[in-house]
Design brief:
alpha/beta; Rossmann fold; 5-stranded parallel β-sheet; 6 helices; about 35% helix
Length: about 160
């Protein structure tokens, strides 16, 4: 009986579960940024106390896949954007808004807007919700629940 049930289980393919794939995505983005935007790449990577480099730009593989799923006509709001290299994947979307605390140089492109502040600070401005997709990727904050409550379309992930 158990073996008959096991044979009927549909196991979806999980995207990007192995380290090698995530590393390749990271490395490809690092090369693209360094080649296409050398001045910006240098300014961001070489700033004081920067904790990313070409070998680790952040958890960019998640953004790579999300950029392929979210309609190009939508606005992307990324809470906890850090140095913002992931904005590169959303250059074809309507607008990419990177939100984070602290003054630092961040990657930015033609459709990039940057907001300095917390999740709560940004949501106090009562931003639009229609055709907006919010992302909290590895954001260690209790404020992520505010994103889930405010935006009907969101992706929230944190490794605890």
């Amino acid at each position: 009986m158990l073996s008959a049930l096991k044979s009927k289980i549909i196991r979806p393919k999980i995207i990007d579960i192995d380290y090698d794939t995530a590393e390749k995505i990271n490395n490809n983005l690092a090369v693209k940024l360094a080649e296409k935007y050398p001045k910006m790449f240098k300014e961001v990577i070489e700033q004081n106390m920067c904790d990313i480099d070409g070998t680790f730009l952040g958890f960019v593989s998640t953004y790579y896949y999300l950029s392929k799923l979210i309609p190009k006509s939508w606005t992307i709001v990324d809470f906890g954007c850090a140095y913002n290299p992931q904005a590169y994947y959303f250059r074809g979307h309507k607008v990419f808004i990177g939100i984070d605390i602290g003054k630092r140089k961040r990657f930015h492109f033609e459709n990039t807007d940057l907001f300095e502040g917390t999740i709560a600070d940004y949501l106090k401005t009562q931003p639009p919700k229609d055709k907006v997709f919010a992302i909290c990727n590895n954001v260690p904050s209790n404020e992520t629940k505010l994103v889930r409550e405010y935006y009907p379309n969101c992706f929230i992930y944190y490794v605890a």
